[in-house]
Specification:
Layout (H helix, E strand, L loop, with lengths): L3 E4 L4 E4 L7 E6 L10 H19 L3 E6 L6 H10 L3 H18 L15 H13 L3 E4 L2 E4 L34 E6 L14 E3 L1 H13 L2 E8 L3 H15 L3 E8 L2 E3 L2 E2 L10 H4 L5 H8 L8 E2 L2 H24 L10 H8 L4 H20 L3 H17 L7 H4 L4 H25 L3 H13 L2 E6 L2 E6 L4
Parallel strand pairs: 3-4, 3-9, 9-10, 11-13
Antiparallel strand pairs: 1-2, 5-6, 6-7, 7-8, 11-12, 14-15
Length: 464
Amino acid sequence: MTLRLYDTATREVRDFVPLHPGHASVYLCGATVQGIPHIGHVRSGIAFDVLRRWLQHQGLDVLFVRNVTDIDDKILRKADDAGRPWWEWAATHERAFDNAYEALGVLPPSGEPRATGFVTQMVEYMQRLIERGHAYAADGNVYFDVQSLPDYGALSGHRLDDVHQGESAGTGKRDPRDFTLWKAAKPDEPSWPTPWGHGRPGWHLECSAMATSLLGAEFDIHCGGMDLIFPHHENEIAQAHGAGDPFARYWLHNGWVTMGGEKMSKSLGNVVAIPAMLERVRAVELRYYLGSAHYRSMLEYSEGALTEAAAGYRRVESFINRVSARVGAVEAGDVPAEFGAALDDDLGVPAALAVVHNVVRQGNTALESGDGAGALAAASSVRAMMGILGVDPLDPHWLDEQTDESAATTALDVLVRAELQRRAQARADKDWATADGVRDRLAEAGIEVTDTPDGAQWSLKGTS
């Protein structure tokens, strides 16, 4: 393995060494199913789907767990506001998230535990924490004593004196900085029996119990959005270490999708829901856009950026389709060393995409010069690279999206390139009138021609 990943816990890029050779275990904090997913919600799913695909390409057997938080203050409040049972509200929006992940080509997880299915494990976890002196019960609540753990705050860099958990008030807390493991039952709210009374779990406890139940006391990688570093992931570590579990060896966090410089969230009202987005662009184009930035960077959403990314994807798709039409079937081949080096460098997708587009340019040149073997080799390499990024145009998942419009674009490309060949020959013969005539006819048809070092490239006006 030559993969190196930025570990939030150590604040450095580290060599990835699996706990068990040939295997990788990954836990991703999944959705709190309180509403319809927007593009900010699914970015982590796409970013770490690339991680999973790259690990698999490296020959590892990947056990990938993505949880569902199906009991939460927000779920209860929104269900109550809508006059619907909380479990039905959660199930409805869990299906919406599943549909979004499936539409965007995110591989289904090896396991997808729901919080409500692991209450027994949570009770056992709390018992271990109480026995080890890291938690206490009060008035039916159970709290974690943050001062009992010397390294509390190490992941986030928070000093204990500055800690604010930001949770709703319970009773019996010894220190306001302590966080809730278990909430005492309230009237008309769901609850489960425990040795300390009926109640329901705290958010942080859910993930520690689910992760260790399915992946073991120690596993390789814990993923999630950077907004989860504190308090959620800090408190997960506290619970695990307090219970005596080594827990995650690497911590990876993805950046937000922003609008106007602010994190996309329902509370800000700057939400772009997945169903609405899929009315503007194809799902594969949306995935390409959301996965094109480095996973740790912020992705500033704009219509222009989305349109540009979709056009970039279509150029790759068009190249592969042209090679299929002119030369023959394109099978996925080998990935260039430069592509592998980019992903090995903390999943450097922007650099990896630069390799993709460079090979596409080389393939186009080969295709136009009559070098069918060279074009086919380039297309095979492009398929392999795009497959690792989850956007291979010939993957069966995306073929249904190659609509009549996609087929028309491919056919148009064949015709336009024939015209561009005429123009190139005319320019070589210094027949400027013919060359200008070709360009003018294409312009009248709404086609812009740009001369580049790799030859003339075309695009429809407004999509380049």
